[in-house]
Amino acid sequence: MSLRDLTASTELEIGACASLENLENDRFTELLGNEFNRLALENDLIWKVVHPERETFAFKRVDKLVDFAERHEMAITGHALVWHIENPNWLVKEDWRAVELADVLRSHIHTITERYADCIDTWDVVNEAVDDTGELRETFWLEHLGENYIDDAFYWASEHTDADLYYNDYGLPYNEAKQDRVYDLLKDLLDHGIPVDGIGIQMHCVGVHPTPEQIQASIHRFQELGLDVRVTELDVAYHNDKRPNELKTAQAAYYQQTVSACLEAGVEGITVWGVTDDQSWITSWREYPDTYTQQPLLFDDEGRKSNRMRLWHQYSANTEMRDQLLFRIYSISSS
Ligand code: XIL
Fold first, then answer.
1. Which atom of ligand 1 lies closest to the CA of 204?
2. What angle do CA 149, 221, 184 make, to 5 degrees?
3. pLDDT at 296
4. What value does the mean pLDDT of the chain take?
5. Catalytically active residues, by annotation
6. pLDDT tens digits, one per residue of 45-71
7. Which residues contact residue 91 at a Cβ distance below 8 angstroms, ignoring those fewer than 6 apart?
């Protein structure tokens, strides 16, 4: 049974990210379409890809991924409308006046959200706006536009789409200062009537492995603000110096405890950041390949279900978990 079959009778979404290149691989596309019911666009909607010149949008790649998702009845997450990296030079090298840059940002958000209003039902509107010390991250956007860029981005997105609008960030379950700042930020947005629907907890468990208690506490804290919570970018890796003796077993256990903690806490969905180990960002991002173990996902290089996956299956299929899923559905339908 595939993961999406397992969750078919529930409202739980089980997603994976992909870039257009991944669709050239048959094994990858088969797994993506069969196992998952949500597709997160990994790279093709980031500024430098989708908006390479000031007057040019490049939509072909996104259109192909959208087409794939629609043929496989997958929901789509757009990632990301505002981020501090992966931006084109024409944008970041210019010394903008605030009004002019605000115009550029507004038109970027309007153009993209309007074009995909019928097919993208969830947007990461602002990605990683708080730094690891718990301050607003000193980004190009903050420098030129001030704090209001966050409010504006959500507001502008809401003008052209009915999609759910998310704030997305990493480190939230274990970095208290960051969690507090993100909490204050989102509370403030909500208090001012800014249309924020949810928070994406990225959950890159790369060298840091938050406990189930930490994970659940962070999920509940944001739910208490009235936000939907999703796990948006799950993967698991260990620092090479702290590699567990039985890597696969340790990793499987960690996947199991993490996924079950998230399900118990009532997340809307869980998206893993990739499908097969060999195309995970951890095999290519900065110093990551030399630093961390290289089997972060649910399927190995050959597309075989890894230990982690078998345990996830086993766990999801057991009675206790079914009860939890049913309870969740009951809570949703009775609310
Ligand atoms: C990564 C992609 O997976 C890589 O392919 C890309 O080179 C860099 O970005 N947080 C995010 C994601 O929000 O967009 C990042 O994805 C991983 C960290």
1. 18
2. 30
3. 96
4. 94
5. 128, 233
6. 999 999 999 999 999 999 999 999 999
7. 47, 51, 54, 104, 140
Q: What is the pLDDT at residue 101?
A: 98
Residue 23 has pLDDT above 70, yes or no: yes
Note whether 171 and 199 are within 8 A (CB): no
- The sign one gets for the Cα dihedral 66, 115, 270, 330 is negative
> Is residue 281 lining ligand 1, measured as CB closer than 6 Å?
yes
pLDDT for the residue numbered 311: 79
Q: What is the pLDDT of residue 286?
A: 97
Q: Give the span between the Cα atoms of 263 and 183, in whole angstroms.
A: 21
Q: What are the residue ranges spanned by the domains of the chain?
A: 3-334
Radius of gyration of the chain (CA): 19
- pLDDT at 189 > cutoff 60: yes
Which residue owns the Cα nearest ligand 1 atom 1? 281
Q: Which long-range contacts (CB under 8 A, 24 or more apart) does 22-26 make?
A: 22/275, 22/279, 23/64, 23/65, 23/68, 25/279
Does the domain spanning 3-334 belong to CATH 1.10.3720.10?
no
Helices and strands counted in the chain (H then E): 14, 9
CA angle 320, 324, 326 (to 5 degrees): 115
In the three-class reduction of DSSP (H, G, I as helix; E, B as strand; rest coil), residue 256 is classed as helix
Residue 36 above 70 pLDDT?
Answer: yes
Distance CA 73, CA 160 (A): 23
**43 touches ligand 1 (CB under 6 Å):** yes
Residue 218 has pLDDT above 60, yes or no: yes
CA distances from 95 to 89, 125, 130 (A): 11, 24, 23
280 CA from centroid of ligand 1 (Å): 9
Whether residue 80 is preceded by a cis peptide bond, meaning omega within 30 degrees of 0, is yes
Closest CA to 177 of 211, 144, 218: 218
Q: What is the pLDDT of residues 219-270, one digit of tens each?
A: 999 999 999 999 999 999 999 999 999 998 898 889 988 988 998 899 999 9
User: Which pTM value belongs to this model?
Assistant: 0.95
